[in-house]
Amino acid sequence: MRPSLAERxxxxxxxxxxxxxxxxxxxxTPLLAAPRLSExxxxxxxxxxxxxxxxxxxxxxxxxxAVSRARADGASGVVCASTGNTAASAAAYAARAGIQAxxxxxxxxxxxxxxxxxxxVGARVVEVPGTFSDAYDASLELAExxxxxxxxxxxxxxxxxxxxxxxxxxxxxxxxxDVLTLPYGGGGNTKAYARGFVEIAGGLPRxxxxxxxxxxxxxxSAIRIVEPIHRPEVEEAMARSGGSxxxxxxxxxxxxxxxxxxxxxxxxxxxSAAGIAALLRGVASPGERVVCVLTGHGLKDPxxxxxxxx
Length: 310
Fold this sequence. Notes:
- This protein is 43% helix and 16% strand.
- It is built from 13 helices and 10 strands.
- The chain is of the alpha/beta class.
- The strands form 2 sheets. A 6-stranded mixed beta sheet has the order 1-2-10-7-8-9, with helices on both faces. A 4-stranded parallel beta sheet has the order 5-4-3-6, sandwiched between helices.
């Protein structure tokens, strides 16, 4: 039997010592060579395929830690604000743990397929007017009133779980890549990768998180967050790594999404292709070894395929 993420990296997750683990088989995701894009870009490009996690996104890495700890601490429920992927993950892990999950979303901001994942496992969905920030504020109020644990990336157990992806990259490559690109919504994943690389390898690759030019209404719904909660940590990681935040247009995201599907056969959701868009902008130099994190499966937003074909 394959060990759970928490078991595999137990030495780096002291908060779970002696805690029964809530797991769905997360982690140990493939690092896929991307030969056609590598040739086109003049790079050694690898795709960290996080869409192969149990609920289809990288969020499962942090959720196994956050929900395991919440249950161990006696929480009767968890709550989060979400654009969709955190929602699906929190709902699934709460169901596995036998506790209630309440998901707060900004009206119309989450893909229907992600909300279907939430409802399928019995979680409660609360819609509020406004943006992700409004949903997050509402989740904090619910947590305070009901005594629930917030499992957004402001919960440091989430970051601890997510940093294990950096461990896996270093393990498989035998060292740090030169460059890491990934989508930039709230910034928690950038924070987690930076922490993970330093912890496992003592240094950082050049980090290039890619954000949508139209944060408020981008078609890449997973990164539709106007005010990144972890902006200070992202800026610190940029300064330490020599990297930069890359702002990409809707057309650039769509083109990158098309390229990774048609040239490498990997069906990720549109937001996941933001890191590819950054590479197409030229953030990596010829010959560099690059890892691009594909954060979620394409089935997270199947309607995007219909829109692209229209």
